[in-house]
Amino acid sequence: MSDIIHLLPDSVANQIAAGEVIQRPASVIKELVENSIDAGATYIQVVIKDAGRTLIQIIDNGKGMSETDARMAFERHATSKIKSADDLFSLHTMGFRGEALASICAIAQVELRTRREEDELGTFIEMAGSKVEQQKPISCSKGTIFSVKNLFFNIPARRKFLKSNATELNHILTEFNRIAIIYPDIAFSLTHNDEEIYQLPESTLKQRIINILGKGLSNHLLNIYTETSLLTISGFVGKPESARKQMHNQYFFVNGRYMRHPYFHKAVMKAFDNMLAPETSPNYFICFNIDPANIDVNIHPTKTEIKFENEQAIWSILLSAVKESLGKFSVVPDIDFDTDGSMDIPILNSATKIHAPQVDFNPDYNPFKQEYASPSTGGNYNKREQFDWEKLYEGFENEKTPEPIQAEITLDSHISDAADTKHEETASLHQPGVEYFQFKGKYILTSVKSGLMFIDQHRAHMRILFEQYLQFITQRKGLSQQILFPELIDLSAEDSLIMEELKEDLAFVGFDIDKFGKNTYRVNGVPANMDGMSCLPVLEEMISAQKESTLSGKNIIQERIALTVSKAAAIPYGKVLSAQEISNMVDSLFSCKNHNYAPDGKPIINILSEEEIEHRL
Length: 617
Ligand code: ADP
Ligand code: MG
Prior knowledge:
Blueprint: H1 10-21, H2 25-38, E1 43-49, E2 55-60, H3 67-72, H4 100-107, E3 109-115, E4 122-128, E5 131-138, E6 143-149, H5 156-161, H6 165-180, E7 187-192, E8 195-200, H7 205-213, E9 221-227, E10 231-238, E11 250-254, E12 257-259, H8 262-271, E13 284-290, E14 295-296, E15 307-308, H9 311-331, H10 383-398, H11 412-427, E16 437-439, E17 443-448, E18 451-456, H12 457-474, E19 480-490, H13 493-509, E20 512-515, E21 520-527, H14 536-548, H15 554-569, H16 579-590, E22 605-609, H17 610-616
Parallel strand pairs: 1-7, 11-13
Antiparallel strand pairs: 1-2, 2-6, 3-4, 3-6, 4-5, 7-8, 9-10, 10-13, 11-12, 14-15, 16-17, 17-18, 18-22, 19-21, 20-21
Bound molecules: adenosine-5'-diphosphate and magnesium ion.
Magnesium ion binds at residues 31, 34-35, 95, 100.
């Protein structure tokens, strides 16, 4: 038998290598923009069409390439950035592997136009599937233009793997932000389908963060700076009150490169100990400057983890740096003159009447009279009885429930499947005209045939509103409550793309929102049940959930909207309800499609059986 091993042709080898380096349009943008930075560009334009499927164009004013270099650049392991293995330990460039261009031209049609300052004519090269199609001198301005067309044109399987345009665009923005934030001294622009998403002038780091992530952050950034012999840490952390449930704005950079570092993340979280609302996580933009000899540069091209030699020492330095800046903030009020806009000092208008704050109290209140006893002290129960009651609802509270929904929606349809049997059992329980009793401003109790029924008032109301909102959305009609002082919401470019996706369905639950500037929206009306509440956190939560979700589809988006709004608008615990309100609520609950579970999967109803009551007495 003849020998069977042979070398793969370059074009095939490059295609295989491309599988590692280029997963999606976002990877092309990352590689090409990094090359432009390495070429010393001060202005980098990114132009994309169809989320990068049909065109990705990067235009820079960097140093350009000679005719020979332009041709060489597409060879595998061709780089101008290192010469020997030793250079790996003193690396100051983003690239060094010489793989990116070889990979990109293996899986797309690429055109390169480039000229160095000293050359009169530039070079044009056209490549497709690793082959040179055309090369000629051209006249062009100094710098380099890469046009990458029809990504994965020769690998249909990879093309099929691409997600929706919205998802791919999101990946692009994520990669773009990771680079643009840490290079504020380079001007950037990003255009998608002829629409400008970013126009970022050269600026300070703080201004760049605000330009990318929205003005909402401008009064929330605290400076951090520590210089040690090991490294310098600089950047910003968000004030504790700007922490959010989702972890979006958390950036570590090392020597100008974005990195993920779960261990250092813990140091930041520790510095925020006891300062954050439950389940929230702070914003941070932290830059490490360190001798490249102390980090492992031989990282995988697409991995964002980086290994440090002295991780523990850096952990402690980082912890104290963040603590120090949070400490300064809590002692000294933050007067920040470094923002782009003016400070928000309300102007006193002499025509406005100033009213003394009014205290709302009930002059008839008599703490010894039973009907006014506060719900938090046990309603109408005396101390001894209260002890037993506390125990009765323990089981209900501790019932194992799924995590509250933040990132991923629990599909309501799944809940109803699981709840079907229970649904039938409890459907017969509701008898109109029965007496109800509110306990601790939290539960509605009533006697049923099999025992004592508890209804969680917040979850019940959430279920009622959820079904109502969903109906509004599907029937394309809803009620909006106009607000007297419209709220303005500044979003990042990334978030405003999501807002555009959500806007139509939001209108049906009652949000009257219009575009008020580039990434600014004005909320003129809110769902009727949200009257008097700030809509910003609700909209933010919806956008974050949408961003993090791996599920897509119109009904998932609609359910998510209905869920987030119903969660916010449902009556809170502690709200004392009148007999009429209770009775209306129970009636509405039992006419819901699923009255056993709240839309986030938590149980609404539980019954303490007669035997159990007997057993306890
Ligand atoms: P690497 O960046 O790892 O060196 P690439 O394949 O990304 O490998 O690029 C190969 C070479 O092409 C680079 O080393 C650089 O010399 C040259 N090059 C790429 N992009 C540009 C650009 N925008 N301007 C000038 N030179 C570039
Ligand atoms: Mg490169």
